[in-house]
Amino acid sequence: MQELKDRIVKEGKVLPGNIIKVDGFLNHRIDTVLMDHIAEEFGKHFNMDEVTLLLTAEASGIALATVCAHHFGKPLVFAKKAKSDNIEGGLYRSDIFSYTYKKKVTLIAAKEWISSDDKILIIDDFMANGEAMRGLIDIVNSAGAELVGVGCAVEKGFQGGGDRLRAAGVNIKSLAIIDSCEPGNIVFRED
Amino acid sequence: MQELKDRIVKEGKVLPGNIIKVDGFLNHRIDTVLMDHIAEEFGKHFNMDEVTLLLTAEASGIALATVCAHHFGKPLVFAKKAKSDNIEGGLYRSDIFSYTYKKKVTLIAAKEWISSDDKILIIDDFMANGEAMRGLIDIVNSAGAELVGVGCAVEKGFQGGGDRLRAAGVNIKSLAIIDSCEPGNIVFRED
Fold first, then answer.
1. How does pLDDT run across B20-76, given as a tens digit for each residue?
2. Which residues of B touch A84 (CB under 8 A)?
3. pTM of the entire predicted model
């Protein structure tokens, strides 16, 4: 998606450790107009008529997924990150490793809001190692629901998470795949 | 706001400890149509023409605030909850006490995205003791920005956070103020 790539090049900052900061429009300050264009783009790649539910993970996926849910008139569930050992029952859960916080995190979602009849599109702002995505797919499977696909705004292609999902046959669409980055030189994978 | 109150009565669950769960439409599963009606309602109470920026706190405020930002064509910043001691510079920060997690949490927002010229409307899904709100107002003040007002969907009136802000002269509008709750009997404050 050219508009997204242009914004990444223009406003993104490459930090040591292959970190790409796009917090001016995607995951701290939110540009909802761009989010809406991203939603439109996802609409070209997924059959939204069959989707019954969008799923994302807190916190930074919520803004984009909310605009997508609004755009397509679908409900959204965001999986929470459990912060206490005292988690109530009635939950789907998946343990993932958070590279951001360098520790295990448990993604949870109430069973009440995801049924085996659901056809789910997962939306996230960012994918690197794909741990959060793996956790979300876990939750879809635990619910016995159908995974329609995965829509991701920015994928760090060189960290392999997206390619592992492709190899596993997941219908994944990332709108900007970054294959390498250093200050002043962000290289995108060709569409 | 009658539509919101009706949803709380119909779908909300009162749990021990005066906890009101509205996670079927507000803060776990998201009904973006209702969120949009809430945005519309805020538009009656605040002069959106003068607002330059919406501000909320992760995680559960993001969905509602995103729909509001989209509705009014304004940028949104969500303050993050710092999870590590290793917080980079260039941030506004405010320490608050999280009653949910029973510990101190630091709200942070990048200085880059909030300027002293901003006229800010704070949006949140829920207010109880008002600690998160206090932290967000702190950030507005640290930035030297102007606080236009506070828009809150559900306020637990009996926990005093909203009334403390009213007493301090903050222009706050909560769309459903719950003055008492027990299973089967949720009492709203009159408008």
1. 999 999 999 999 999 999 999 999 999 999 999 999 999 999 999 999 999 999 999
2. 101
3. 0.96
- Minimal-distance CA residue of chain A relative to B58: A59
Cβ-nearest to B58 among A32, A33, A59: A59
- Taking only the tens place, the pLDDT of each residue in B111-160 is 999 999 999 999 999 999 999 999 999 999 999 999 999 999 999 999 99
Interface of B with A (CB under 8 A): 23-24, 28-33, 35-36, 58-59, 62-63, 66-67, 69-70, 73, 75-78, 80-81, 83-84, 101, 109-110, 112-113
- What is the domain class of B2-188 according to CATH? alpha beta
DSSP string, chain B: -HHHHHHHHHH-EEETTTEEE-TTTTSSEE-HHHHHHHHHHHHHHS-TTT--EEEEETTTHHHHHHHHHHHHT--EEEEEEE-SS---SSEEEEEEEETTTTEEEEEEEEGGG--TT-EEEEEEEEESS-HHHHHHHHHHHHTT-EEEEEEEEEEEGGG-HHHHHHHTT--EEEEEEEEEEETTEEEEPP-
User: ipTM value of the model?
Assistant: 0.95
A2-80+91-188: which CATH topology?
Rossmann fold (3.40.50)
What are the structural domain ranges in chain A?
A: 2-80+91-188
